[in-house]
Design goal:
heterotrimer, A alpha+beta (479), B alpha+beta (97), C alpha/beta (498), B: Histone, subunit A, 35% helix, C: 40% helix, 12% strand, globular, binds magnesium ion, binds zinc ion, GatB (chain A), transferase (chain A), protein biosynthesis (chain A), nucleotide-binding (chain A)
C-alpha cells in the first residue's frame, strides 16, 4: 500500500509598506517611475552615505505586529545581511535578525470549515532591492534602483500549514488585516506582497520534520497553490525513490509548472549578519505601543458588527462587503450619499463582483468614486431611471467613473411617464399580438410578460416597468 | 601556530568576500590569518561571562526621519560614475542563466 | 611677513585686517606645494583653479561682511576619504581611481560655510587601513622632518601637508589612531573628537562604529577653532550626537590648576621607546609645574585593545567595502566571463594587499560558526575596555601618555611584518573602541630629529579639558610649529643635516 504523506508548510511573506518615502532616505516609493529617477546617494549605496530610519515604517510594523497578536520587541535593532547581487547596491541588506520588531504572534484561519491558528515566529523590517531587467540578446542585465530601499516587513510563520488551501487562507487573512490597517495595498501582481514557501513532507503520523526547500518567485495565489502541489509531488517522488531532499532555495517557474534549484557554487548562503553600526537602537515605550493601539483603525470583525447594527444589513451582506477594505470603504461612502445601505450592498455584492470577475480585477483595483454609486441608487430609488437602465449606467460608472446624473441626462435615459405615449404603445401591443392577449385572458398569466416586453421595446426601455404592467393589466381587462 | 587555516577556508572566505587570490597571495593570506587569529585568541584570557556585547558606545536611541519626500530626480548624478551604462540603467553581466 | 609661517588663526586675522588676501594665501601655499610635493607627496589631487575661484568668492564675502569667522579665507586640505562633490575622491585606492562624488560631506560643508578654501585632497593609506601611508595606490607620503621616514597613517598626507606648510590645516579621519599617530610623527596637533561629534556623512566608511573626522593643525588654538567649525549635529548621520555646547575655543585659557592627570603605568613600560618615554614625562612635569596634579595608575586591559579592535574594524570594513564591485562607480576590470567573475576580478585588481588582508579577516570572523567566538567576544572586550576608562575618569580629568611607542619608522620597514605594524596602535585604538576624545600634541624631537607626540585622552564630550591642558602646555613651552620641517628651500639653505 502506498504510504500516506503529510505536507508541512511555513511562509515568509514580504509586504511593501505604504509609506511615501523609502525606509532610509527621502526618495519617493511611488510605483512605476522611469528607471533610476527615485534614487539618491543613500539608496544607491554611494560611498559615505548613511541611512536614517523612517519613523512611519516602525509604526506600520508595530501596527501589523499588534494586529497579528505579536509581542513587540521593545529594544529592537537592525543588522546587516551580507551578500553580493547587483540589485543590492551596498551588497548588504539592512534587515533584522537578532532583535526583530515583533515575535510570537498568530492568526486564526478557516479552512475546510475548520478554524485553526497559524503561529507567527517573528516579523522584521528591512529594505527592498532594486529591479533587474534581463536583456536576452545582449547577455546583460540592467539595474534600476527605484525600488531599492522601499520598506518591507517580512512575516515569518511557523510551519503550521498542511495544505495549499490553508496557505491561501492564511495569506488572505494576512492581506485583509494589513489592508485594513492601511499599512500596504498588498498587491501580488505588483509585488507589494510576496510569499516564499518553505515546504517539507513527512510520513503521516511522524513527529519529526522532513528536509525543507524554500520556493521563491510566487506572484499569485494560483501560482502558490500550483507550486505547493508541484513541490509536494517532487519531494514525495524523491523519498519514494529513496533519494534525499536537499535543503535549498528553488525558483518556481509558473509557465513550466516546475521549480529549479537556485544554488551556484558562488553562493555560500553565509550572510555574516552583524549589528548595523550606522543605525541606533529603537526603544519602544509602553506609551508608544498604547498610542499605536489607540490609532489602530477598525478591523474587519469590528466593522462587520457595526454594519449589522448601524446599517441593519444581514450578516451575509456584511461578510461579503467587509472581505475587502476597499469594498467596505466604498460601501460607507456610497451609503453616506444615498442613505440606502441595503441597496448599496446589493450593487456591491451582485454587479460589482460580477464586473470584477469579468475584468479579472481585485477590489483594490476599483477606480470609480463611491459618490457616483450613491447617486445611482438615488436615481433608481426616485424612479428617475428603471432597473435595466441602472445596470447599464452602473457599467459605465465601473469602467469610466461617469457621473450618473449627467450621463442619464445627456443620453436621455430617464423613465418616460407620459401616459399618452404609454397608452398608445399598449394599444399597439394588444392589437399586434392577439395570440398573447388570448392566452392571458384564457388564464395564462405569464403571457403578460411578452406584452410588457413589447411595450418596453416601443418605449425604448425608458418606461417604468411597474407602471407599464399596471396599465397593461387595466387595458386587458377592458379589452 | 595554534590556528590552522586550510586552503578550503581561504577559498570559502574568498567566495564570501569576492576576492580571487593568486597562489602566492593565498599562502600569504593563510599565514597572515593564522597569526592574527592566534593573536586575537589572547582575548580568551579575559573572562567576559555575563558581559553584554557593546555595539554602540553611547545610549543614543530612536533617531528617525519623518515620512516626507525630500529627494527629486537624481538620475543623471547617480549614473554619472557608472562603469557601464545602458539607457538609464546600470549594466551588469547577465544575472540569471 | 612670511605668510606660510602663520597659523591658520593668524592668517585668518591677517585676511580680515586686509594685511593679506585669501588669494595671497592660496598662491603662497600652491608655490610651496610645487616646491616640496615632488619629495613629500602629501596630495592625491590638487585643485589649483578651484582654489583661486574659492579664494576670490570668499574674499568678496569677507569684504561684504558675510564671512566673519576666524578661518575665513584660509586654505585647507581634506583627506581623500571625505567626499567633495565633483572632485576626485580615491581613498588612496585604485578601485576609486575615477570616482567623483555627487555630494559633499557634512564636515566639508561646515568648512565652506565658515569660508574655508579647499585646495586639494590628501594622500592616505588605502581606505584608511595602515599606519604609514605606504598602502596608498598613489605612492607613499614622506615625513617632512625626514624624507627617509614615513609620516605615519592613515592620515599621513594631511599631517605631512600641515607639517610641510603645504596648507594651513587639514581634515583627517581616525578609526584606530589615524589622526593622532601621524600627527605625532609629523609634529603637528591632531584631535579625534568624541564619537558622534563630527558628522560621518560623506566620510567613506572603514569601521563605522569607530570612525571620526577630526582636525590636523599647526597648534592648539587652530585645532580648537577647526573643531568648532566642523562639529555639528547632523540629521543625515543617525549616530550624530546633539551636544550642548560647540564653543571649543572657550577652553583656550592658560589654566590647569587642580586638573587631575593620570598616566597609565601600562602605557609607560615594555615596548616604549626610551626617548619617547622621557619626552612624555617631561611634558607631564610641565603641566604639574603649572598646577596640575599628576599621578600614575593602572588602566588595565591595554593589551586586549588591539585584538578587539582588529576584529571589530575588519568585520565592519569587510561589509562596508562590499559596495565596491564595479557596478555603480569606480574601477571595473576589463575582461570578465560572468557576474561573479566580474566581482572577483574587479575587487582583486582594485584593492591592495592590506585591504584584502582585512577584508578576508573581517569576512572570516563574521562567517557562520565564528561569529560568537570572535565578533561577540570582541564586542564584550570593548564593553570591558569602556568600563576601565569609566573607572579611570572617576579619578582623573585627563589620561596622559605617548601617542605611539616610537617615532616615525623608516620607509619600507613596516609592511613586511603587519603584526608589528598593528602593535604600533597600542595606545590609540582603545580610545576609538570607547568612543572617547583624544589628541596628540608635539612635545619635542628625538635624537634623529623626528617629532614626538603625547596623547591626551578625555572622557566623552570633554574635548575642552583636553584643549585646556594642551594649550597650557603649548604656552609654557616652545611652539613646535615655529620650527618648521627642514625641507625644500630652507633645507638647501641650511644644508641637509639628516
Ligand atoms: Mg528577508
Ligand atoms: Zn534614496
Amino acid at each position: 500500500m502506498a504510504k500516506q504523506y503529510e505536507t508541512v508548510i511555513g511562509l515568509e511573506v514580504h509586504v511593501e509598506l505604504a509609506t511615501k518615502t523609502k525606509i532610509f532616505c527621502g526618495c519617493s516609493t511611488e510605483f512605476g517611475g522611469a528607471p533610476n529617477t527615485h534614487t539618491c546617494p543613500v539608496c544607491t549605496g554611494m560611498p559615505g552615505s548613511l541611512p536614517v530610519l523612517n519613523k512611519q515604517v516602525v509604526e506600520y510594523a508595530m501596527a501589523i505586529g499588534l494586529a497579528s497578536n505579536c509581542k513587540i520587541t521593545q529594544v529592537c535593532k537592525f543588522d546587516r545581511k551580507n551578500y553580493f547581487y547587483p540589485d543590492n547596491p551596498q551588497n548588504y541588506q539592512i534587515s533584522q535578525l537578532y532583535l526583530p520588531i515583533a515575535r510570537d504572534g498568530y492568526l486564526e484561519i478557516e479552512s475546510g470549515g475548520l478554524k485553526k491558528k497559524v503561529c507567527i515566529h517573528e516579523m522584521h523590517m528591512e529594505e527592498d532591492a532594486g529591479k533587474l531587467v534581463h536583456d536576452e540578446w545582449d547577455d546583460t542585465s540592467l539595474v534600476d534602483y527605484n525600488r531599492s530601499g522601499v520598506p518591507l516587513v517580512e512575516i515569518v510563520s511557523e510551519p503550521d500549514m498542511r495544505s495549499a488551501e490553508e496557505v491561501i487562507s492564511y495569506l488572505e487573512k494576512l492581506r485583509m488585516m494589513i489592508q485594513y490597517l492601511g499599512a500596504s495595498d498588498c498587491k501580488l501582481q505588483e509585488g507589494s506582497m510576496r510569499a516564499d514557501v518553505n515546504l517539507s513532507v513527512r510520513e503521516a503520523g511522524s513527529e519529526t520534520l522532513g528536509t525543507r526547500t524554500e520556493m521563491k518567485n510566487l506572484n499569485s495565489f494560483k501560482a502558490i497553490a500550483r507550486a505547493i502541489e508541484g513541490e509536494r509531488e517532487r519531494q514525495i517522488e524523491l523519498l519514494e525513490e529513496g533519494k534525499p531532499v536537499i535543503q535549498e532555495t528553488r525558483r518556481w517557474d509558473d509557465n513550466k509548472e516546475h521549480s529549479y534549484a537556485m544554488r551556484s557554487k558562488e553562493d555560500a548562503q553565509d550572510y555574516r549578519y552583524f549589528p548595523e553600526p550606522d543605525l541606533v537602537p529603537i526603544v519602544i515605550s509602553d506609551e508608544w505601543i498604547a498610542e499605536i493601539k489607540s490609532r489602530q483603525p477598525e478591523l474587519r470583525s469590528e466593522k462587520l458588527e457595526r454594519y449589522k447594527a448601524e446599517f441593519d444589513i444581514p450578516q451575509y451582506d456584511a461578510e461579503i462587503i467587509t472581505e475587502s477594505k476597499r469594498m467596505a470603504d466604498i460601501f460607507e461612502a456610497a451609503t453616506a450619499v444615498c442613505k440606502k445601505p441595503k441597496k448599496v450592498a446589493n450593487w456591491l455584492m451582485v454587479e460589482t463582483l460580477r464586473l470584477l470577475k469579468e475584468h479579472n480585477m481585485e477590489p483594490e483595483d476599483i477606480r470609480f468614486s463611491p459618490e457616483n454609486l450613491g447617486k445611482l441608487v438615488e436615481l433608481t430609488e426616485a424612479g428617475t431611471i428603471n432597473s435595466s437602465v441602472a445596470k447599464e449606467v452602473f457599467e459605465k460608472i465601473f469602467t469610466d467613473n461617469i457621473n450618473p446624473e449627467k450621463y442619464v441626462e445627456e443620453n436621455g435615459l430617464k423613465t418616460v411617464n407620459d401616459e399618452g405615449a404609454m397608452k398608445a404603445a399598449i394599444e399597439k401591443a394588444i392589437a399586434d399580438n392577439p395570440k398573447s392577449v388570448e392566452d392571458y385572458l384564457g388564464g395564462k398569466e405569464k403571457a403578460i410578460g411578452f406584452l410588457v416586453g413589447q411595450v418596453m421595446k416601443a418605449m425604448k426601455g425608458k418606461a417604468n416597468p411597474g407602471m407599464v404592467n399596471q396599465m397593461l393589466k387595466e387595458a386587458l381587462q377592458e379589452h | 601556530m595554534k590556528n590552522k587555516i586550510t586552503d578550503e577556508v581561504i577559498d570559502y572566505v574568498g567566495i564570501l568576500a569576492k576576492l580571487e587570490l593568486s597562489p602566492a597571495e593565498k599562502e600569504a593570506a593563510k599565514s597572515d590569518m593564522e597569526k592574527m587569529l592566534d593573536y586575537i585568541d589572547t582575548l580568551n584570557e579575559l573572562d567576559t561571562e555575563g558581559i553584554t556585547p557593546m555595539s554602540h558606545v553611547f545610549p543614543v536611541n530612536n533617531v528617525f526621519r519623518e515620512d516626507i519626500v525630500t529627494n527629486g530626480n537624481n538620475r543623471e548624478a547617480i549614473l554619472s560614475n557608472a562603469p557601464l551604462r545602458k539607457d538609464d540603467s546600470f549594466e551588469v553581466p547577465k544575472t540569471i542563466g | 611677513m612670511d605668510i606660510l609661517s602663520l597659523t591658520a588663526l593668524q592668517l585668518g586675522k591677517a585676511i580680515k585686517e586686509r594685511e593679506a588676501s585669501a588669494a595671497d594665501a592660496v598662491r603662497a601655499v600652491l608655490d610651496r606645494v610645487k616646491e616640496v610635493e615632488p619629495e613629500v607627496n602629501s596630495y592625491v589631487t590638487l585643485d589649483e583653479e578651484g582654489a583661486f575661484q574659492q579664494a576670490e568668492e570668499v574674499q568678496r564675502l569677507i569684504e561684504a561682511g558675510e564671512f566673519t569667522g576666524p578661518l575665513a579665507g584660509v586654505p585647507v586640505a581634506v583627506k581623500d576619504n571625505i567626499c567633495i562633490e565633483g572632485q576626485l575622491t580615491t581613498c588612496g585606492s585604485r578601485i576609486l581611481s575615477n570616482f567623483k562624488p555627487v555630494y559633499t560631506a557634512e564636515a566639508v560643508l561646515n568648512l565652506k560655510k565658515a569660508g574655508a578654501v579647499v585646495i586639494g585632497k590628501t594622500n592616505m593609506d588605502e581606505f584608511a587601513m595602515g599606519s604609514t601611508t605606504e598602502t596608498s595606490y598613489y605612492g607613499s607620503t614622506k615625513n617632512p622632518h625626514n624624507l627617509n621616514h614615513v609620516p605615519g597613517g592613515s592620515s599621513g598626507g594631511s599631517c605631512a601637508a600641515v607639517a610641510a606648510r603645504e596648507c594651513y590645516y587639514a581634515l583627517g579621519s581616525d578609526t584606530g589612531g589615524s589622526i593622532r599617530q601621524p600627527s605625532s610623527f609629523c609634529g603637528v596637533v591632531g584631535l579625534k573628537p568624541t564619537y558622534g561629534t563630527v558628522s560621518r556623512y560623506g566620510l567613506v566608511a572603514y569601521g563605522s562604529s569607530l570612525d571620526q573626522i577630526g582636525p590636523v593643525a599647526k597648534d592648539v588654538p587652530d585645532c580648537a577653532a577647526i573643531l568648532e567649525i566642523i562639529s555639528s549635529h547632523d540629521t543625515k548621520d543617525s549616530t550624530s550626537v546633539k551636544r550642548k555646547n560647540y564653543h571649543f575655543t572657550e577652553a583656550l585659557t592658560e589654566d590647569v590648576k587642580g586638573l587631575k592627570i593620570g598616566i597609565p603605568r601600562d602605557y609607560m613600560g615594555k615596548g616604549l621607546d626610551k626617548e619617547v618615554e622621557e619626552a612624555v614625562r617631561k611634558a607631564a612635569k610641565v603641566l604639574e609645574e603649572n598646577g596640575a596634579i599628576v599621578e600614575e595608575f593602572d588602566l588595565s586591559l591595554v593589551q586586549y585593545a588591539i585584538p578587539a579592535y582588529y576584529v571589530i574594524a575588519s568585520a565592519e570594513a569587510s561589509s562596508n567595502l562590499e559596495r565596491f564591485d564595479g557596478v555603480k562607480y569606480g574601477y571595473r576590470t576589463a575582461d570578465y566571463r560572468d557576474l561573479h567573475n566580474m566581482y572577483k576580478k574587479t575587487r582583486s585588481e582594485g584593492f591592495g594587499a592590506e585591504v584584502k588582508r582585512r577584508i578576508m579577516l573581517g569576512s572570516f570572523v563574521l562567517s557562520s560558526g565564528y561569529y560568537d567566538a570572535y565578533y561577540l567576544k570582541a564586542l564584550r572586550t570593548k564593553a570591558l575596555i569602556k568600563q576601565a576608562f569609566d573607572r579611570a575618569f572617576e579619578k582623573y580629568d585627563v589620561i596622559l601618555g605617548p601617542t605611539a611607542p616610537s617615532t616615525a619608522p623608516e620607509l619600507g620597514k613596516s609592511l613586511t611584518d603587519p603584526m608589528k605594524m598593528y602593535l604600533g596602535d597600542i595606545y590609540t585604538v582603545a580610545v576609538n573602541l570607547a568612543g572617547l576624545p583624544a589628541m596628540s600634541v608635539p612635545v619635542g624631537k628625538d635624537s634623529r630629529g623626528l617629532p614626538i607626540g603625547i596623547q591626551l585622552i578625555g572622557n566623552s564630550f570633554q574635548e575642552k579639558t583636553l584643549l585646556r591642558a594642551a594649550y597650557m602646555y603649548e604656552c609654557a613651552t616652545e611652539k613646535w610649529h615655529e620650527t618648521s620641517a627642514n625641507i625644500g628651500k630652507e633645507a638647501q639653505e641650511n644644508g641637509k643635516t639628516i
